[in-house]
Design brief:
Elements: H1 2-16, E1 23-24, E2 27-28, E3 43-44, E4 47-48, H2 55-69, H3 87-97, H4 125-131, H5 135-143, H6 168-174, H7 176-192, H8 199-220, H9 233-251, H10 258-265, H11 287-305, H12 309-317, H13 321-336, H14 342-354
Antiparallel strand pairs: 1-2, 3-4
Helix pairs in contact: 2-3, 2-5, 3-10, 5-7, 6-7, 7-8, 8-9, 9-11, 12-14
């Protein structure tokens, strides 16, 4: 039944020849198939042992994380799905349906229709990078008591994988900055309940801690970079600009709740890019997909031309709660408006930066 569901999702993506499917009944794809209780994941000798190389297990980490932190997410708003964590399961779903979790070397059937469709390849750069924003925050949350008092967790690891951590202690030793920042976020979440700050400032401060942790995880995922060699030049260029775009989103303290994150992820390319793919005229991709790739490309080009100063200028402009609100609005215009003018963007950004 599950295999059929995945195949129908993949068939849907192919037949539409448009953006990857990331939602099913308003929730991340296959959400209903994930674990809603810790006890639904493997437990050995009283140790929780999820397999993060199985899509449903990794998606379950997100579901459990959101459920455990939701009671403290009041500052994010009154809606049911306001947590910034929602952006992560949506990303993972997009990676699955766009074919980015399969074995890019083609030496195994991992993630393919002919093999285990729920397999996340250890050779996938996308799957490896996502490990750092799924496993690390989950281990930190468990360490900080969000999964219950003293719940020991150890991730299963495929044979031959030696460069990734599997326990809180391992991850803290290998990636201390990322783990420290996730700890700070979860502790800040607990402390926010008693904070006298106004709700909008409390929300902004929490989102600041959240994005510091997520960016630290992204920097730690540099250990995955050798896996980029499995992909075409256009896909590597997109992967780099995708990572770079996180700098803008993070500095603006973007609230990646279910609704907002969906808007940004739906126009992403619904398949792995091939040699010869040049936006905005990539055959088989929708106008929206071509537009989002083109936008990523020109933002990256400007930043490269300016020697990295575009990102720095953006960070400088995000100097207050009000400035960050304007920054979020500008990001929506840039990423969701067809043919947004790069000169307009630079003009608005320069004005914002000088007013700080």
């Amino acid at each position: 039944m599950l295999h059929q569901t995945v195949l129908s999702l993949l068939a849907c993506v192919v037949s539409l020849s448009s953006s990857a499917v990331i939602l099913d009944n308003g929730m991340p794809i296959l959400w209903a198939q994930t674990a809603s209780q810790l006890t639904e994941l493997p437990i050995q000798n009283d140790v929780l042992m999820p397999n993060p190389w199985n899509f449903l297990h990794r998606m379950s980490l997100y579901r459990l994380l959101i459920a455990a932190t939701d009671p403290l997410m009041g500052p994010m708003g009154t809606g049911a799905n306001e947590s910034p964590f929602w952006g992560l399961p949506l990303q993972l779903g997009w990676m699955l349906t766009s074919g980015r979790l399969v074995d890019p070397t083609g030496t195994t059937a991992c993630g393919m229709e002919t093999g285990d469709t729920m397999c996340i390849s250890t050779e996938s750069w996308w799957g490896c990078g996502n490990y750092f924003v799924s496993v690390l925050p989950f281990l930190s949350a468990a360490h900080n008591g969000f999964m219950g008092e003293g719940v020991p967790v150890q991730m299963q690891v495929p044979e031959g994988v030696t460069d990734l951590c599997t326990t809180y202690a391992d991850c803290s030793a290998l990636f201390p900055d990322a783990m420290s920042k996730w700890d700070t976020f979860f502790q800040g979440l607990k402390a926010a309940t008693g904070s006298p700050l106004p709700e909008n400032e409390k929300k902004d401060a929490l989102l600041g801690l959240y994005w510091q942790a997520q960016m630290a995880s992204t920097y730690a995922s540099a250990t995955c970079n050798t896996k980029k060699s499995h992909y075409s030049a256009p896909e590597v260029s997109f992967a780099n600009s995708w990572q770079n775009s996180a700098e803008y989103v993070a500095a603006a303290h973007f609230q990646s709740n279910l609704e907002k994150a969906s808007k940004f992820l739906i126009p992403l390319p619904g398949r792995v890019l091939k040699e010869g793919d040049v936006a905005p005229n990539i055959e088989g991709l929708s106008t929206e997909e071509n537009n989002s790739l083109y936008t990523f490309s020109w933002m990256d080009s400007i930043n490269t031309t300016l020697g990295g100063t575009l990102v720095n200028m953006w960070k400088k402009a995000m100097c207050s709660v009000v400035a960050r609100e304007k920054g979020r609005e500008l990001l929506e215009q840039v990423l969701l408006t067809t043919n947004y003018n790069s000169f307009t963007f630079m003009g608005v950004l320069t004005t914002m930066a000088t007013s700080c």
